[in-house]
Sequence to fold (354 residues):
Amino acid sequence: MEAYIRGIGIVSAQKTFNTHDFLSEPIEYNTNSMHCIEPVYTEFLNPVLARRMGRIIKMGIAASSVCLKDAGVEMPDAIITGTAFGCHEDTEKFLLSILDNDEQFLTPTSFMQSTHNTVSSQIALQLKCMNYNFTYVHKGFSFESALLDGLMTLAETDAQNVLVGGHDEITDKHFAISKRVGCWKEESIPSMDIINSKTNGSVSGEGAAFFVLSNEESEKNYAKLIGVNMIFEPENEKEVETKIIALLKEKNLSPSDIDCVMYGISGDVRFDPIYYNLMNSLFQESTSVYFKHLSGEYQTSGSFALWEAAMILKTQTVPGSILIGKNKKERIKNVLIYNTYMNTYHTVSLLSQC
Fold:
């Protein structure tokens, strides 16, 4: 199963929204939590409707609108999203209103918008799209599950263009709770120095990224998505290597054919060693890049990585801000993304030049 990436729309902690600029001026943060640079939503939504919508819903609608426009697609044949926590802000509002109002006189808005499939549903409502609509809530596999479903939908149905996205937000309460269990760093650090961090925890992040997957060749296409794999709780690093080699073999490729490898290095000393193991074993000849110093860590951060990989293949450039060591390749034909969330959810995505 393969598909072309026809269009992209992304809201992130970087200047990525509604622009084809590729990290020419990356923003550095000095914190332990990154938040998105949000657009002016009135350009995409009725102001009255926007007032009633949570932040992640508005980010999702804005990102998907730009994505469809970029692809030149008015109506997708399917809308498929992945999210780990859904609309966290609205969930908190609803739960707090239960406590504040002693379970009485509750307004339904926050409850209706707290479900995980709210973003994909609102996109469909805006487009008046009655086609296949599904949301995956598989923690660290959420976005990759949506990608896999998108590939299957194109391969097994009459669909021509499928809108696939990944989205998650960070709230103050969510940050505080997850920090107590060791997810985030205690100290604030410069984001560009994450790769040198030797402490536990990562820097939290958030984002919404959407892609139009198409089975048609076009000059507009960014890249070709040729494989997605997920590995749950591998026993050791050898199992990860074996699964990656198996995916490459399935596509008639070897590790030496991979020109660029994108790693999910997050600055967490507990989980980053597995990236360096691959860097120094299977992919010694490949150019190494990373992305979480720009996006922060969240369970659907693979969507930001996919944007980064697609832009590398489209522009044939590797920004210095994401480079680890030297650029070893003059031309980049194949890019592999390897990411892990808390060393439990391991994902591999493989892209090639159109």
